Structure formats: structure tokens, C-alpha cells
Amino acid sequence: MSERIVVGMSGGVDSSVAALVLKRQGFEVVGLFMKNWEDDDDDEHCSTRQDLVDVASVCDVLGVELEVVNFAAEYRERVFASFLAEYAAGRTPNPDVLCNAEIKFKAFLDHALAMGAGRIATGHYAGVRETAPGRFELLRAADAAKDQSYFLHRLTQAQLARVVFPLAGYRKSEVRRIAREAGLPVAEKKDSTGICFIGERPFREFLNRYLPRAPGLVRTPDGEVVGEHIGLAFYTIGQRKGIGIGGRRGDAGAAAPWYVAGKDLTRNELIVVRGHDHPLLLRRGLVAADLAWVSGEAPDPAGDYTGKTRYRQGDAACHIAKLADRACEVDFEAPQWAVTPGQSLVLYRGEVCLGGGVIQ
Q1: Count of domains in the chain?
Q2: 130 in helix, strand or coil?
Q3: Is residue 335 domain-shared with residue 228, that is, in the same domain?
């Protein structure tokens, strides 16, 4: 009998082609659609209903079984509560990282194993390599522009042992082509870029439903008051739009836009600077806590690594200056722009994703 693999299907082209690839490889494929958000799943910003229709259509074309499961309670308890707490504390969390660790590769994995599956699969662009019996590495995907290992850096050895990433060697253009040639109804469907399982929506309006506004002053590092903010939770380091203050004339006569450079939580003040390359927006070092290493062990502090402090950032050469059980200090060879507390620092050695932690 062929191995049963349960594929997490979102209604998008990536997970649909992941299921198709496994079906063609001879596995017994079961599609599983996760419903993880219920607060307003009937409004214009939450596409759950349409996504489920799309998944059902794809499964019909592929001739595979579909199961629908509701993890809304687990999502609210394990992911969304932490998401709100981080924003309330003035940090900017990355919900996709926690969502992967707690829902897609924990709640989903447990459910799939109970269904009699040997492994699970998703449409993530990443790879897994077994280096020795029972020992696994998390790898970057072949498509560097779509690589999602950053979001998966908290996965454990036990989780990687049960995971398949069928799209590891594909480029996005190939995935679209395969979907078209197979007649999948989602071949041209737009990729989702919203909050994990919540969807694309006006973010400030959404956050305001759950966090109270706490207005305060906006000032420069020199103490000049230049405006008012609606609450520190609604801003992030490096933010340019939506600050609510106009540009001013720089020395060269060109308009120099404002950027969020910091938050004074004690005084409830937002610190802003003019110019993308202001020194307060550049940092050579950072401290990351709540560390998670894919191998189960911390990397050698003497090694040379590259790091990313946000998903859409190129690799930057760095080294570990200090390392403890739950925190590390990392120095970069070149200053990094808008290093943001709450986001993830992820370390790499070549194509191998080593893990990381939360920027303090």
C-alpha cells in the first residue's frame, strides 16, 4: 500500500500543486482544509468560504479525498493571544512564524497522524534533508524569491521527520505552469499576503477592534514635538506611511520623509526621524531571545553565518557575539535597517536554516 500523506490545502495554487505532485508520485493523498478564524469570516476581507470552494474544486480535479477541520480555538489560544500581547507591549510580532509552529505543524500534524497519515505536506517553498537516520536539516527553496524557510525556522526534528515540502525544487513560474497544464481552477489565483488565516484587511482598523487606542506625542530625538499618535501598538520601526505628519524640507531642498525610529513606552511617545538612512534606523547588533534551533542544539558561536531580521531582506553576514540558553547577541558586518523588536532573527549557514529567535 502507498503511504498516506495529508496535504494542508489553503485554496491557493501552491498547496494545490503540492497535492498534485504527491499524487503523481504515487502517494495516497488526502486534502485537509483548516478553518482557523471565525470572528468575521463573512466579510469582504476573509476569504474562507471561497477558499474552501476552491479547495473542493481542486480535490475534485485531482480525485482526492477532502477533510475540513476547525482549529479556531487553538489558533486564538496559541497564536492570536500572543499576537495581541506583543502589539500591546509595543513590539511587532510575526504571526506566520508562530502559526507555523503551533497550528500548521502541530495541531495539523497531530490531526493528520490520527487520520492514519505517515506524513503531512504543505505548499511552502522550503526543503528538508535527512543527513543521518532521524536527523534532518531545513533548507532554503530553489526559488530564492519565494523561499519561506524564514517562517519555518522554529520547526523541530520531530516535526521535520513528518513533513514533506513538494515544492522545494520548483520555481513559482513552474508551479503556475503545472497548475495550468493540469487544469486546476486556481492556476491564476492571486497569492494571499494577509495575516496567517485572517486574510488581507485594513490592518490598523482590524487591530483597533482588539486593542484600545492610547494617544500620545510624536517627537524627534531632539525632543521637538511634531505630532500626535493614536497608540504605540499601531506603528512599527521603519514605518513611513500613516504616521500622520507631513514632510519637511531638508538641507538640500528636497522633501525628507519621516520614519518611525523608536518607541518610548514609559512616556508613550513615538520617536521619528527624517530620512531613510538616519543613524537611528541603522543597527549593527541585536539581541534575540526565545531561541529555537532546528537541530536541537545551538550553532557554534565561532562560525560565520548570515542572518535575516525580516522576511523581505537579503542575507547579511554576521557572527554570534554572545550565546546563552535562551538568548544570543548577534553582530552584523554591515548596519541593518529598521531592526524591529518582535520580529524574528533567523540564522543560516549556506542553504541550511539553523533557527533563530525573537528580536528584543
Answers
A1: 3
A2: strand
A3: no
Mean pLDDT for 59-85 is: 94
pLDDT at 193 over 70: no
Which of 258, 276, 294 finishes a domain? 276
Q: Which listed residue (46, 59, 99, 328) is catalytic? A: 99
- How many angstroms separate the CA atoms of 245 and 228, rounded? 8
Domain around 51:
4-203
Distance of alpha carbon 42 from alpha carbon 23, whole angstroms: 33
Residue 81 shares a structural domain with residue 198 = yes
Q: If DSSP codes are grouped into helix, strand and coil, which group holds residue 43?
A: coil
Average pLDDT on 83-108 reads 92
Catalytic residue among 196, 318, 328, 353: 196
Q: What's the whole-number average pLDDT of the chain?
A: 92
Name which of 43-47, 104-108, 341-345 the model is least confident about.
43-47
Q: Is the pLDDT of residue 251 over 50?
A: no
14 with 130, same domain: the answer is yes
DSSP character string of 195-227: BTTTBS--HHHHHHTTS----EEEE-TT--EEE
- Catalytic residue list contains 196: yes
| Residues 115 and 169 occupy one common structural domain | yes
3-state secondary structure of 116: coil
pLDDT at 36: 83
Q: What are phi and psi of 154, to 5 degrees?
A: -95, 5
How many residues in total does the chain contain? 360
Q: How far apart are CA 165 and CA 54, in angstroms?
A: 21
Q: Order of strands, edge to edge, in the sheet holding 216-219?
A: 225-229, 216-219, 269-274, 258-264
- The predicted pLDDT at position 46 comes to 53
Question: pLDDT digits over 255-302, tens only?
Answer: 789 999 999 999 999 999 999 999 999 999 999 999 999 999 999 999
Query: Which residue from 16, 18, 79, 86 is spatially nearest to 232, judged by alpha carbons?
Result: 86
Considering the domain architecture, whether residues 185 and 261 belong to the same structural domain is answered as no
**Which residue type does 325 have?**
D
What is residue 166's three-state secondary structure?
A: coil
Among this protein's residues, is 59 annotated catalytic? no
Q: Looking at 255, 276, 297, which one is the last position of a domain? A: 276
Q: Rg of the Cα trace of the chain?
A: 22
